Amino acid sequence: MTPMIAFMSGPWGRGIRILGGIALIFLAATEGGWGWLIALPGVLMLVTGIVNYCPAASFAKPPVDRSEFMEKLGPRNLLK
User: Does 79 reside within a domain?
Assistant: First the structure.
């Protein structure tokens, strides 16, 4: 896991997501007009902060080690 994802998955990252979500929702409420569009990412940030889920962490899974699986397959002659 990268240091940034580890940070954002921790308590400080959770707090940043919650505060950032509140700030975007507040900004959308004060802007009016097309400003409501920035409320959507704000709600997303707020919800992910409240439930303590980092969406970026789902993309940063460790690579799967397939060497053992490939060794079990062994060489194959596909021309037979």
Answer: no
pLDDT of the residue at 26 = 94
Could you list the residue range(s) of the whole structural domain that residue 18 is in?
3-73
- The domain total for the chain is 1
pLDDT tens-digit map of 8-25: 778 888 899 999 999 999
Give Cβ neighbours of residue 38 (< 8 Å, ≥ 6 apart).
24, 27, 28, 31
Q: What angle do CA 38, 43, 48 make, to 5 degrees?
A: 130
- Residue 10 DSSP one-character state: S
Query: What HEC string does 29-46 produce?
Result: HHHCHHHHHHHHHHHHHH
Please state the φ and ψ torsions of residue 43, each to the nearest 5 degrees: -65, -40
Token pair listed for 69: 């699986």
